[in-house]
Amino acid sequence: MSRYWLTPAYEEGFDEKVAAINEVYKQAPERAKQGQHTESLDEMTGVQALERKHPDLPMCAGKVERREFEYIRHGTLSLTCNFDVANGELVACTACQTRNEQDFLEHIQRRVASDPLATQWHFVSDNLNIHISESLVRYVAEESDLGIDLGVKGKTGILKSKASRAAFLSDPTHRIVFHYTPKHASWMNQIEIWFSILVRKVLKRGNFSSIDDLRRKVLAFIEYYNRTMAKPFKWTYKGRALSA
Description:
Layout: H1 14-33, E1 36-52, E2 71-84, E3 90-96, H2 101-113, E4 120-125, H3 134-143, H4 162-169, E5 176-180, H5 191-203, H6 211-228
Parallel strand pairs: 1-4, 4-5
Antiparallel strand pairs: 1-2, 2-3
C-alpha cells in the first residue's frame, strides 16, 4: 500500500505569499461593500462526457446499486470558473473544448464587462502561463487606463518575462488585480473546493449523452447551487505547515 507525496517547493517568499492570499480572503467581505469583486478562479480540464452503454440497476433489498462498466466517450470540456469569495456563489463559467491564452483572456473580459460599475476586481489564481500572458497584461493596462510602454515580450519592459508580467498583474493600484498562489499551493485557491463539490454532485456519477449534455448539466447545477447551497467558505488556514 502506498500514497503519493509531493515535496513542497518552498520558493522565496512562500510564507509571505500564503499570508497575502489569506489576507485577500479576509478582506473580501469589506471589499464587496465598496463595490469590489474578489473571486477565486481556475480551469478544470479534460472533463469527460461519458455515457454508460446500459442503464444502472437500482438498489433493492439486499443488493447495492449496480453500474454498467462500459461507456461511450463523447469528448471533453474545459471549464473555467469563478467563485465569489464574499457571497459564496459560482459567478462565471466558461465551458469550451480548448484551454488557451485567448480562452482565458475572453473569460476575464466577459466577467469584467458583466459589472461596468465595479471599482476593482481581485482574482486569485495559480501561476499557469495563460494567467500571466502578454494579452492579459495588455488588457489590464487598457482597463486601468495606463498609457505606458509595456515593452516587448521576451526582450524588454513589463512583457519581458513571466516574473515581470506577474508583478505587473499583481499591482494593487490597477483596476484588475491578480493574486497568485505559491508554487504547488493551488489548494489555497477556493475554487478547488467548489470543483470538488461539482465532481461529487455531478461528474462522478453523471451520464452524459454528448458534450452539449455535459455543458447543460454543469450549468444547471451551477444555477441550482447558487439558489440553494451557496455560502462563503469558512477559510481557517493560517499558514501553518501541512502534516505528512
